[in-house]
């Protein structure tokens, strides 16, 4: 898979894998997909002429490819500092990650004129320090000027949350959720981990999750067709998988060249899955874009209960990892270390599905949210359209502010938006209040 100078040795569990299963081949479920997706789900680095994904980390050209038509933070920094490519091209982390693994997705994907992606991923924790001359300005650009020597604060104490009621009437907020990610120190990140490494990541994480008690107690369900988990040797049933996806609680195979070029689709669906508790209001995705993506959610606006469940879970997993001599990836500068620089720091997105048809009809709706430290998505994800004035509104920042600060910005901001919606329903003028909108002073 190209993330080290030589192929990882074949261990016992890979010897037993049939020819139609990773890392030796593709399962039938993947063979049914278009070829451009299949090419990213095997053992090799992603190479697809159809999609223009032809940059090879294993054989990087001496000169950086032309980035003049690209629109991402990586290309912006590289165009401004063209010497960086040659300076960093020959470096490799102690776990075998080179510059090409980090920038392939940004070279293969020119981007969209209206949507600016990061254009980089980290192949391991060391990537962020070895290639800091490139990562630091990219991180600064994505996170509104975050300095190379800045220190990121962490605060997971639910007692520090705002007591403001987001939706006192219960008429506007449908569901609320908090999500973040965690990575385990010592393993490579999903873009570059080996087949065996991913299985070991799954084993360690699932052991931690199965030790959770009380309202967090639950079970682990590998993706349908995964053969990595002994208690469920063929993964969850297709019916279970379809149910989880229909409810928006489960990821699917990578269907974008951004993810495929990053390397996150290799060996699909092996060692990927989801843990959820019995109430199905706490979920952990395993080995998708991040080693762990942790989600706490429920109907209504009780973000304090959601955050407390979320904090208890991360603490519980941390204790089990420590008993195994493991710990989460974390640094004073970057906070919690995750695959994409956009999620560094807290990695946290506190959001709710909220119905505000009058306020969201404003042409400056998203610009106002930006001033308040918020962002809006349609109900089905990043690029989806909203229906019936229902938007997924969440904190915009991840890095430079603590978890509780970001949740408080979300609480105060959405509470204000609902008050504006109510004012518009009553025919009142809100222009003066809109003009004064911004981040809450104490955050």
Automatic annotation (TrEMBL):
List where Basic and acidic residues composition bias occurs: 1-19
Q: Does the keyword ATP-binding apply?
A: yes
Q: Where is the Phosphagen kinase C-terminal domain?
A: 172-424
Q: Which UniProt keywords apply?
A: ATP-binding, Kinase, Nucleotide-binding, Transferase
**Which portions of the sequence form the region Disordered?**
1-24
Q: Where are its TM segments located?
A: none
Q: Can you tell which superkingdom this protein's organism belongs to?
A: Eukaryota
Q: Where does ATP bind?
A: 175-179, 293, 349-353, 377-382
EC number of the protein = 2.7.3.2
Report the InterPro entries cross-referenced here: ATP-guanido_PTrfase, ATP-guanido_PTrfase_AS, ATP-guanido_PTrfase_cat, ATP-guanido_PTrfase_N, ATP-guanido_PTrfase_N_sf, Gln_synth/guanido_kin_cat_dom
Q: Which Gene3D superfamilies match?
A: ATP:guanido phosphotransferase, N-terminal domain (1.10.135.10), Glutamine synthetase/guanido kinase, catalytic domain (3.30.590.10)
Domain Phosphagen kinase N-terminal residue range list: 56-144
Q: Which family does it belong to?
A: Belongs to the ATP:guanido phosphotransferase family.
What name does the UniProt record give this protein? creatine kinase
Q: Source taxonomy lineage?
A: Eukaryota, Metazoa, Chordata, Tunicata, Appendicularia
